[in-house]
Amino acid sequence: MHTVLGLQEIALVITAALFCGLLLERFRQPAILGYILAGVILGPSGIAYIEDVSIIQLFADFGILMVLFVVGLSLDLRSFKRTMGISLSVVCGQIVISLCIAFTLNAFMQWSLGFSLLLAFVLALSSTAVAVKMLEASQELNTDVGRLTLGVLIAQDLAIVPMILILRDLDHGIQWVSLSLKIFVALGILSAFVWWLSRPRKVPLFVNFSAERPELPSLVSLSFCFGFATVSGFIGLSVAYGAFLAGLILGNLKERAIMLQVIMPIYSVLVMTFFLSVGLFINISFIWAHLWLILALSLGIIVFKTLINFGLLRALRQPWPTTFLAGVMLSQMGEFAFLLISIGWDSRVLSPFAQQMLITLTAISLAISPLWVMLYGKMSAYHLRAQATFQQTLDVYVHLLGGWAEYLFSPQAYQKKGRKTPKKP
Predict the structure, then answer these.
(1) Mean pLDDT of all residues in the chain?
(2) Is 0.85 topped by the overall pTM?
């Protein structure tokens, strides 16, 4: 039990997170679940190795900025333009349907406005890490299903910006005029940069990287990330929005590949810390006390999101096979849900019970999502085999019926073809 983490303790925490991440990867689960598991084991509900989470939380806050920075850095706006119309329509539909459901439940449960908004936002998002991993495993990443799924995920990443702004404002009570102005300014700036950066010609950076100065790319990346975050927070917008905007700018310049290469080690450590901090808040006793409710809600969310995605894509006239598989790939709750839950907790719109429930549901939906895709694969294969068997049987009966019809109505023509008279059954 340690109240203050020293170097040895930090080394042990990182080693435990690495081991759990590799273990979950071994079972074809995302590494982020391993980091959460390490937090559960080392936290108050486990062996209580970490009691004071202040240092972990500090690095976790940096991890939040780095997550949004790398999301912006990874966005390929030129590729996104191919599916932009469909993707934005799907995400808008997901948010609207989630809001309708949250506010309908609010009429019966008497929740606060802030919790209803948070619940809707959390339900609308899917996991980029899990979806991409499943697309790669099923060799669908470069197909129509993969392109459509990635387009929707990119649109969800863009939708994070207004979500964060709204939830951050809940701490002081929603001032609708001020909030609307912030969202208008943020979306205006974002739209301008998206238009500018999605032009065919890439813009060069003002700094020329060379082999003699290998430290420059990482320093420029971190300076952009934290510099834009500081300016964004200073003018009243979210620091997370500034980090995302910085990544979006650098990610669509010529030096994007270099930036990604040098920032990923820093990103990996800080993201590990963020998900480790999530695990510190998970209470094992809470899970055991509400196990069946949690499992039922997790399965319900997976099925519900699959049907919603399927309905939206079919409404946009996407083909059946593409529609259903993309709906399954987007069925889980997203890792950004942890970020929104953290913001909601800081804004005091979540009770301890609601915080525990949402964190647990998000983690379990991430874990069972690959199983849901495997189940879909088996059902799809069985359907194709059954369809093929039915088609073969139908062809045999059509051939027999055609022969009998030809024999009855034109026996001479039938005999000329050299066929034998069909035997009566």
Answers:
(1) 77
(2) no
